[in-house]
Specification:
Blueprint lengths: L7 H5 L6 H10 L6 H8 L3 H12 L12 H8 L1 H17 L6 H25 L4 H10 L2 H9 L4 H10 L4 H14 L4 H9 L4 H4 L8 H18 L3 H16 L3 H17 L14 H25 L3 H22 L10 H17 L4 E8 L2 H8 L1 H18 L5 E6 L2 E7 L3 H16 L3 E3 L2 E3 L3 E8 L7 H18 L5 E5 L18 E4 L1
Parallel strand pairs: 6-7
Antiparallel strand pairs: 1-3, 1-6, 2-3, 4-5, 7-8
Length: 520
């Protein structure tokens, strides 16, 4: 795939940076610039003014009533935030060009916004006070591709296809972006960061000491984040995200996962304000699933092809490293950090699969809901650190009591859930009672006294063959059984059956009308 050259002719044909943005950027590095001066600049662009008022009025800014006064908006947002937002709004207005290439404009613009948001969020973690600067640098990273769209629109689809096929082709767009930023007299650190964003990890760790290392490193991580959300090759982008975050910023897996999800949440929150099209995005777990599948396929394909080439030993080592990385990422994406049980998202993914499996073999699915009794009182009396300790000890007790074939997850807060394949009422009741007794035997010794945790357990069984809404019925009935256990005195087990007539194994409960076993 050929690369588009950067030349002065191209630069001369580019539109100039919007006047309001130019004047604001002159104020960017001067903390002494009065708000009155910023207000004078902004008020000449009604569209930018309207969006700044809207930004200041947003829920994220914590303002109860809509802001209608520009000076108040500037006070709320601050000079640097106003500058970066005004720059964003000005570029956004110029990027939403109607016509046959409008979809391409929106695609590039989304990538720019993701990089800006990722840079700003990262700055909040590693360089507080530089969020607006990082946001602006991330946003301007895609000026080159936008310029190509404006000046050579017929060639852009080929350019974009080359980038999607091989991320190293971003170098051409990055060089043009850097040249344009220099042409506009942007800070040299911006151009440098744009050029460095696609360098290898090894190169990034050996940049000249006089460089703005934080900005360049942030640009690299933000570009990988945009690649993950906006481009087809999500698997390798995810690996790059984790490697860059670990080596450059010391961020471990859980912190990286939170960072990626935070960026997605912020982009989704501001999609109307920044006119971004996120219609192709799924939930975080769905995007991650695509990346994991790609990496799994890559690992298998790489091993098979290299064996044929006689390089098995060398590439097998690399393949095993990749496999370990994939397995680690997958494990952390489905694991609750505190209890080390599966998390709620993985439970939500697994429940439909369990229902399908049971339906296929004409079996049943059982579910136990566990809720720690008086957990709020434990936190209030002993502190949240002790509450966390109790949760972890209870989780360990549950894992000791269940089988390998059972699925144990933290559902949320102090609630745990257990999926059991093809149980009877009696066996599910027995498991619930063993768990209840095991937890009741636990003692958690703290500086403020001894805690003796107990759990209320609710259980239910569903027959998917005879139920179209088996998953929702199972969760609802087990949850209700757990609340009945609490109402009946806590530290007890209530198990119901949602099986059709003929499969029921106990008498009808007067309160709910469902078969039930109970114990304490």
């Amino acid at each position: 795939m050929r690369r588009l050259a950067v030349d002065i002719t191209t630069l001369r044909r580019l539109p100039t940076l919007p006047a309001v943005a130019v004047r604001l950027l002159n104020c960017f590095g001067d903390p002494e610039t009065p708000l009155s001066r910023v207000a004078e600049i902004v008020q000449f662009d009604p569209a930018v003014t309207a969006k700044l008022l809207r930004a200041a009025s947003s829920v994220g800014m914590g303002v109860a009533q809509p802001v209608t006064d520009l000076r108040r908006a500037l006070n709320i947002l601050g000079i640097k935030k106003v500058t970066s937002l005004a720059l964003c709004f000005s570029l956004c207005e110029g990027s939403m060009t109607p016509g046959p290439f409008s979809k391409l404009y929106r695609k590039v613009w989304l990538r720019a916004v993701v990089q800006a948001q990722a840079s700003g969020d990262l700055a909040a973690m590693i360089a507080p006070g530089r969020q607006a600067e990082f946001f602006s640098a991330g946003l301007l990273s895609e000026i080159g591709p936008l310029a190509i769209l404006k000046t050579r629109p017929n060639e852009f689809p080929e350019f974009l296809a080359g980038e999607e096929a091989d991320p190293t082709n971003y170098a051409s767009g990055s060089e043009l972006s850097a040249a344009i930023l220099a042409h506009w007299q942007m800070p040299e650190s911006f151009s440098e960061a744009v050029r460095n964003r696609w360098r290898s990890l090894e190169e990034l760790t050996h940049l000249p000491v006089e460089s703005d290392l934080l900005l360049s490193h942030a640009a690299a991580l933000s570009a990988a984040t945009a690649e993950y959300f906006c481009q087809p090759q999500k698997g390798m982008a995810l690996v790059r995200i984790h490697e860059l975050a670990d080596v450059l910023f010391g961020l471990k897996q859980d912190a990286v996962q939170s960072f990626v999800e935070r960026v997605q949440g912020h982009v989704m929150e501001n999609c109307d304000l920044l006119e971004t099209d996120i219609s192709t995005w799924g939930q975080p777990s769905e995007i991650l699933a695509v990346a994991m599948e790609q990496l799994s396929q890559l690992a298998v394909t790489t091993l098979e092809s290299t064996i044929e080439q006689g390089l098995a030993q060398q590439v097998n080592q690399e393949n095993q490293r990749l496999r370990r990385r994939v397995e680690d990422l997958l494990h952390r994406s489905i694991t609750d950090v505190l209890t080390r049980l599966f998390n709620r998202a993985h439970f939500d993914d697994q429940l439909p699969q369990w229902i399908r499996n049971a339906r296929g073999c004409q079996g049943t699915v059982g579910l136990l809901f566990l809720d720690l009794d008086r957990f709020k009182s434990i936190n209030d009396t002993h502190g949240h650190a002790v509450g966390d300790m109790v949760l972890k000890q209870v989780a360990s007790a549950v894992k000791r009591t269940t089988r390998e074939s059972d699925f144990v997850a933290r559902y949320g807060g102090e609630e745990l859930v257990i999926l059991v394949a093809n149980p009877t009422i009696g066996s599910l009741q027995g498991l619930g009672e063993r768990i209840r007794a095991e937890v009741a035997s636990e003692l958690v010794t703290t500086a403020t006294g001894v805690v003796r945790p107990t759990v209320s357990v609710g259980g239910s069984i569903v027959d998917p063959v005879h139920s179209l809404e088996a998953a929702s019925e199972l969760v609802h009935s087990a949850d209700q059984a757990m609340y009945l256990a609490k109402r009946n005195g806590r530290n007890r087990v209530e198990v119901w059956s949602v099986l059709p007539h003929g499969h029921q194994e106990s008498a009808v409960a007067e309160e709910m009308g469902w078969p039930m076993f109970s114990s304490n």
